[in-house]
Amino acid sequence: MNRIRLFIMIQAFTVVLIFGQGCSKVKFEEINQASQKSDALDLPSSDPDAPHPRVEKAEEKFQQSVPNTSNSKVDILFVEDTSLSMREERWVMHKKFSKMFSHLSGMDWQMGITTTDEELKGELVETEFSYKKVLKQQGSYKRDFIDTIGFDMCNDDDSDGWFTSPCGPADDEPLKLSLKAFQNASALYRQDADLAIVYLTDQEEKSGVSGATKADDVINGFKSKFSGKTMRAYGAVIQPGDTACFKQERGYGKDPNGGYNHSVTELAKKTGGITVSICSADYSDLFKSIKEDFSKVSSQPLFNSVILKHDPIAESVKVTFTPSTSIQTHVVGRTVFFSEVPPVGVEIRINYNYVK
After folding, report:
1. What CATH number does the domain located at 73-295 have?
2. Nearest 5 degrees, angle CA 315-CA 341-CA 305?
3. Of 346, 328, 269, nearest to 61 (Cα)?
C-alpha cells in the first residue's frame, strides 16, 4: 500500500512540474511582445531629443522686368493694315513718320515692312524706288521708307489695285501676320539684335471675332523662334476708350465690328512697349520710346515661371499679382508656372509653407 501511495505522489509531482514549466514559457513570450509594441509607439513622445519636422512660412517676391544693361542694336518690323478701312490714313501716313529717323539717331537699326495681306504671308515688301526689302542707314533709306509706308497702290481709284498684293481689302489680322513674319521675313533678323514690332491698324484683330490671334500667341511664337532675344511691341491704333478717334474712324470702309484695338494694346503692355492714337498727326512718340527702351534693354526673354527656394506644400501656395491680373498658376515641385507671361512691371508675391 505504501509503495502505491509513493508511486502516485511521484507521478502527480511530475505532472505539476511539467505543466508549470509550460505556462511560464507562454507568459514570458506575451510580455516580451507587448513590451516591444509599447516601445515602438512611445518612442516619438518618450525621446525629447529626437528631431521633429517643423512647418515654416516663406514669402518670395519677383518682378517682370528687363535688366538695365545696354543693347542698342534693334531690328524694326512694321506690320501695316492695308485693308480698305485704312484708306484715309494711308493718304497722310508719310507725314506721320516724317520725324521718326531723328529719334533713332545713335542706334544700330535696320527695318522692314510687311502688311496684313494674306497672300504676302508675312514676307517683306520691296521699297518703292530702290526695291530693297531691308532698309539700313545708308543711301536713300529715308525716301525709300516714306514713299513706301503709304502704300499708294492700295488707294488706287482702280479697284483692281485693292485686291493686288500687298493690299488686302478685308484682311485685318496684324498679329497673325507678324507670327508669319517670324518665319518668312528672315532677311531682317540679325543674330545679335533685338526686335521691335510696330503695328499700324484701325481695327481690332480679325474685327474682334472669335479665333483671333492673341498677344500671348505672338509672345510664345517669338520665344520659340528667337530664343534669348527680347521683343517689344508698339502700335498706332484706336486706343481703348479714345472715343474721339473712334468716331473719326467710323467713316468710309470702316468695319462696324472693329474699332477699339485691345490685342495690340495688350501685346504692347505685356512686352514693355507703347501705343499711340492712329488719329495722331505725328507718331514720333513710338520711336522716342523705341530708342529709350532698347538703349537699356538686354537680350533676355520675359519669364512665364519662377523657381522657389524651398519645396512648397502645394496646397499652401498663394500667388498675388500687383496690379492684379487674371493669370492662373499651377505648381510642379519648386516651380510656379503662369498661364500667360506676366506683363512688364507686375510684382509677383508668393506665400507658401514648407517642411524644414
Report:
1. 3.40.50.410
2. 45
3. 346
